[in-house]
Specification:
Layout (H helix, E strand, L loop, with lengths): L2 H35 L1 H15 L4 H4 L5 E2 L7 E5 L5 E4 L1 E3 L2 E2 L5 H10 L5 E7 L2 E9 L5 E7 L1 H39 L1
Helix pairs in contact: 1-5
């Protein structure tokens, strides 16, 4: 058997371990990015839910101002009536009213109550929103959302960084395995 073949066979378990370790790092960091993306929306949705549950008017719950969700990373809030029509919104899309999420999202929120169903919503191509939608038993829904572009950019950079680290580790360990085998053959 050639030295390269022996080195490759001896290196395979290490290659599997390196690949598994890199995948674990990627998934852990990526999930941390995604989960923390929802933190402002969780607080906003819960606060608005409690206010609406206690009889507050939708206009008093939604902060004044207009956030263009296609460009801004600021979280926004929308209050919908029971049929899903927007009553108040701090977010707009391209200067127009916020669109309505798919009906299935409202059905899920209605079924889950205040269990904070998180979801990703793409209201138009190129715009993805991390959203929390709660059903208010007294009639209506509250949606808190935020543009995901900054986190998606970080995830892209993470993919490149982990891929480079994986490749460097694979090449370095295979090279070292070959050197170790060559040195051990010289001693024989």
């Amino acid at each position: 058997m050639s030295v390269l073949y022996k080195a490759f066979i001896a290196w395979l378990p290490l290659a599997v371990a390196i690949t598994g370790g890199c995948l674990l790092v990627y998934v852990a960091v990526q999930q941390n990015y995604r989960q923390s993306l929802n933190d402002p929306q969780i607080q906003m949705a819960q606060d608005a839910f409690l206010a609406l549950q206690n009889g507050a008017a939708p206009a008093s719950v939604v902060q004044s101002g207009t956030i263009d969700v296609t460009k801004s990373l600021s979280p926004f809030l929308v209050v919908y009536n029971e049929s899903g029509t927007a009553l108040e919104s701090s977010g707009v899309m391209n200067g127009k009213a916020m669109p309505k999420p798919p009906q299935g999202v409202f059905d899920l929120a209605r079924a889950k109550g205040d269990n904070l169903p998180h979801n990703t919503w793409q209201p138009e191509p190129g715009v993805r929103i991390a959203a929390v939608l709660l059903h208010v038993p007294k009639g209506g829904f509250v949606l808190a959302g935020r543009n995901m572009s900054s986190v998606e950019s970080r995830e892209g950079k993470l993919s490149v960084e982990v891929s480079i680290a994986w490749l460097m580790l694979m090449v370095a360990t295979l090279f070292m395995q070959i050197i170790v085998l060559l040195l051990s053959q010289r001693r024989e």
